[in-house]
Amino acid sequence: MNPYQLASRAADELRYMSGVSSYDVAVVLGSGWREGAEALGEPTSEVSTSSLTGFVAPTVAGHEGHILSLNVAGRNVALVAGRVHLYEGNSASQVVHPVRTVIAAGAKKIVLTNACGGIDPTKGPGTVVVIRDHVNLTATSPMEGASPPEGYGSRFVDLTDLYSARLRALVRDAAPQLSDGVYAGFRGPHYETPAEVAMARTMGATLVGMSTVLEAIAARHLGAEVLGLSLVSNLAAGVSSGPLNHLEVLEAGQAAASGLGALLAQLVPLL
Description:
CATH topology: Rossmann fold
Order of helices and strands: HEHEEEHEEHEHEHEH
Largest sheet: 5 strands, mixed, barrel
Number of helices: 7
Distance between the termini: 33 Å
Radius of gyration: 17 Å
Structural class: alpha/beta
CATH class: Alpha Beta
CATH superfamily: Nucleoside phosphorylase domain
Number of domains: 1
């Protein structure tokens, strides 16, 4: 079964188990964002991803595998909690399977959130940055392999407007305090070296992390509009004088939870 058939089957299962016939918006919750998402309201259903075709279990602390359904301002919203990563031993297709599934279940607007390292010292921990563009340094793509089947777009997908200019304009009008930046996606799981961060800065990146880029490509290929939101959880290697650790990422998310929740509650109804 090809990745698109897997996603279609999982979408049918999700619709059946959640009782939601079609979604409008999906939000992929990165480290620290799950707590904030509670501000969107009480879920109408919670489906374990282990019960859906093609999903693999997350192995990272703070990433539980569930898809929560909510109704926000008349929109059916899927919250994807339980992102998986390349560094867990997964393929690019497995990493993007949750995004392909929620799009197959109707979502045409995808919000990708993450916790990341900041390259710009003026945007310290707790700052939310809107992703304007990305640099894919993972050495892979969800479009690798066989051509998509008939009925799907070419694997040579145009990424000119990958992070939707229309959605970014909506965010800019609603939350003018947010700046934008360029996200460099590394494979991980080790943190970047100071030299790698300097390389990313030279390439134009202001954020570094280990997620998001493959999901964005897969979503754009399927015709969805993509909005990326990064929470700076720490300053990147060489920018900060201290050591880096994953606990710091989780703590930063917990500390920023109320602000993240208010931001999501403000933005999701606009999408």
